[in-house]
Amino acid sequence: MAQEPKSGAAASGNPAGAAPSGAAAAGNPPVLSVSGLTTSFLTDGVWKSVVQDVSFHVAPGETVAIVGESGSGKSVTSLSIMRLLAKGSSRIDGRIILNGKDVLSLPEKEMRQVRGNDAAMIFQEPMTSLNPIFTIGRQISEALTCHGDISKADARAQTIRLLEKVRIPNAASRFEDYPHQFSGGMRQRVMIAMALASRPKLLIADEPTTALDVTIQGQILDLIKLLQEEEGMSVLFITHDMGVVAEIADRTIVMYQGRAIETGSTADIFHNGQHPYTRALLSAVPRLGSMTEHKWPLRFPVVDVVTGERSEPMEVADTVDRKAAPILKVENLTTRFDIRGGLFGRKVGAVHAVENISFDLFQGETLALVGESGCGKSTTGRSVTRLVQPNAGKVNLDGRDVLRLETEELREMRRSIQMIFQDPFASLNPRMTIGGTIAEPIIEHGLGTPAQAREKAADLLERVGLSADMMTRYPHEFSGGQRQRICIARALTLDPKVIVADESVSALDVSIKAQVCNLLMDLQQSLRLAFLFISHDMAVVERVSHRVAVMYLGEIVEIGPRELVFSNPQHPYTRKLMAAVPVPDPSRRGIKRNLGVDELMSPVRPVGYVPPLRRYREIAAGHMVRIEEAA
Asked: Is 386 buried (19+), middle (13-18) or exposed (0-12) by CB count in 10 A?
């Protein structure tokens, strides 16, 4: 269990139940007041509390962040406020006053009016929150007609105004579009428009930016700030990202194991955090620009969440031998996906996912491929492993011409290169024990007996920070971070020389992300592994990589040593990615990035399209940037 702060929650500013500052302190009652909230779930006939005695308030016009990792109870807290938990299997105790209404005593009919009119909620994954069979215009209009007496024509006009308010380009023409026709960032804007339809006093944002690319995340944060100023609404922002908290929150509540362990102004939490868990969260946040004095990758500091003891970060020793031949050499790699249409399914175009890219990867080196969703970085990883078939180019892996290998040779080649995927749960067979999952490649490749495979599986589990006695468990019995460690152990089973880590830490909580990154760096040092590290998180990339390649629309626009790319970014897209990274500094809370609402352009090209011949210039030794031709 977590320790309570030595000087109480008030050590970092206002205690959870204290009178709020600002507008509320001047006599205005809080928009939301939560007292003694305890939420329990019925499990095996026993009520188990997952939120325990939580109290806080949100003043008019104020942004309060609830921060904590998966399982801390922050999302259950928000669902309890909105009374969105299943009735039969959940129980909410305590007192919730929302805009003067006692939420827990309202009949369901009146509660439906509270949702939307008094408070609205946006969720982490907009695609699962939108109905795929209805247009986005109809879905927003429905929110208007359900909460007010308004004609169909007026609802349409107001919906278009809402879409314009959340900065969706060509709003009127997109009224009849379906959710799948929008990008992730634009779908989240639709959800915000829907939440604002009835002008609520409180907006509850539950991890609204976690699944988004860093530039889209920056746009959404700017948008929420702007709308809050225009509408005067309060915001309850739920996240595990302390960088986001610093940029958006007036006050912060830190939750751990269902309890609010520390509450105060965001500046006090960041500068004078008292609880070891708070300090652990802050220590795990990668800060862009923190590597200026370090030439090689740097381990993340680790803070014990009970004792507060901190292990200082250590620079990882250089294991790269650039005089030897590269372990992986990619030349002019091109991967396209045909688009077919019409009555006879003729080819009508192609997705130019990867277009004529080249790079080297040396033993013991980490080359990071960075860019937004749709830029082609994951397709690059799948192309070099032949999980997708490239159209052209050369891939040489440890002396093998990968693109010319037949089935048996390809199978043998994959012992040298393995892949770690973003979603560890989807990567593991739910019907197999983890011991069986890790041992399977050894048996399938005929590299040992079942007994030898089990012995190696046990050794690998120990190496990735788990224990051998976990071998009989199934994937659902592990946390997300533990499942990713299992996937890393499985990737190591065949003693590969190259590992493609495809967004392997992006779905993890901040402290778990730090632990997994440290593990990857330790394994690289002890086994001299080469990593192709695919990510959109520039702050993490700066910490773990030796070299960086920035991708945009299937092409590399800038590549070079990490310290040169980050200290002197040359391409506008590289600078845009870096400008969008949240900075864990509360003094920047009022700053807006002005990133605009432009989306990544489409990589779809018509039949017969010939891509332009690209030219590069060398800024410094090994630092290349694409020359942009004048329009």
From this structure: middle
CA distance 160 to 135: 13
Residue 484 in contact with residue 519, Cβ under 8 Å?
no
CA–CA distance, 204 with 199 (Å, rounded to integer): 13
| Residues pairing with 315 in the sheet | 298
C-alpha span between 252 and 100 (Å, rounded): 23
Alpha helices in 232-331 (DSSP H): 242-248, 266-272, 276-283
- DSSP designation for 9: G
String of DSSP letters for 111-168: HHHHHHHTEEEE-S-HHHHS-TTS-HHHHHHHHHHHSS---HHHHHHHHHHHHHHTT-
How far is 598 from 595, CA to CA, in rounded Å? 8
Tokens of 401: 């011409």
| Residues in CB range of 46: below 8 A, 6 or more apart | none
DSSP assigned state of 170: T
Question: What is d(CA 174, CA 164) in angstroms, rounded to the nearest whole number?
Answer: 11
Instruction: Report d(CA 545, CA 269) in Å as an integer.
Output: 30
First to last CA, the chain: 61
Least Cα distance to 209 among 192, 194, 193, 197 occurs for 192
Q: Say what the pTM is.
A: 0.82
The secondary structure of 69-99 as a DSSP string is -TTSSHHHHHHHHTT-S-TTTEEEEEEEEET
Would you give the distance in Å from CA 275 to the centre of its chain? 25
Task: Give yes or no for a contact between 98 and 270, defined as CB atoms under 8 angstroms apart.
Answer: no
User: What's the DSSP call for residue 606?
Assistant: E
Q: Which helix (H) or strand (E) holds 228?
A: helix 214-231
What are the tens digits of pLDDT across the range 428-480? 999 999 999 999 999 999 999 999 999 999 999 998 989 999 999 999 888 77
Give mean pLDDT, residues 312-341: 88
* DSSP run (H or E) holding 494: none
3-class DSSP state of 454: helix
Model confidence pLDDT, tens digit, residues 276-314: 889 888 887 888 877 888 888 888 887 777 666 777 777
Instruction: At 195, list the tokens.
Output: 């939440």
Residue 40, token pair as written in the block? 């329990």
SS3 state at 376 = coil
Q: Which of 490, 510, 494 is nearest to 434 (CA)?
A: 490
Measured distance CA(542)–CA(602) in Å, rounded: 28
